[in-house]
Amino acid sequence: MAADPASVAQAHAVAAAMRAMGYPDAHVADDAVRATRALVLVSPSTATVQRSDLQWLVGQRGYETFVQLFVFAAGGFSAQSMQYGQHMDVALFTLDPAGRVAAQSPAAHRMSARRAGQTTVVTPPADRSRWWKRRS
Question: Which of 53, 21, 45 is nearest to 97 (CA)?
Fold first, then answer.
């Protein structure tokens, strides 16, 4: 069965967005977006993504926590799925018919910052004393 041309176009747009976010091998195969170190769920329908959809994706990852989870949804996300996505560090993006993506979760904003070429600066704590040293 052939896929809907609009959903195939959206899948190619998602793959392009993922390549821009640092996943150079993101591609469309068998009507799905695939990339190393990432699991991707693309929901081209206008149905709202529910928490159970995210739980399924997290279950697919298993113990491989180095794998980043992405969800691209044309219909948006329920409040419970947003909360669960934030808790499980899932990158949630909305997807419009033109193929543009918009970040909806902290993980998605982090990935989008990579897309824009921004870098995250980690500053060490101000107090550099060794807490394990015995003080007299």
Answer: 45
DSSP state for residue 48 in the 8-state scheme: P
Condensed to tens digits (0 to 9), the pLDDT of residues 77-102 reads: 999 999 999 999 999 999 988 888 99
Contact 90, 69 (CB under 8 A): yes
The alpha carbons of the chain give a radius of gyration, in whole angstroms, of 18
User: With 80 as the cut, is the pLDDT of residue 135 above it?
Assistant: no
What CA–CA distances, in Å, run from 61 to 41, 96, 127? 12, 26, 38
CA distance 111 to 82: 16
Q: Is pTM beyond 0.85 here?
A: no
Distance (Å, rounded) from C-alpha 132 to C-alpha 81? 42
**Model confidence over 32-61: pLDDT tens digits?**
899 999 999 998 888 899 999 999 999 999
Which domains occur in the chain, in start order?
5-115 (3.40.1350)
Please report where in the chains the tokens 């995210």 appear, as a residue.
54
Residues 28, 34: Cα–Cα separation, whole Å: 6
Element (H, E) at 46: none
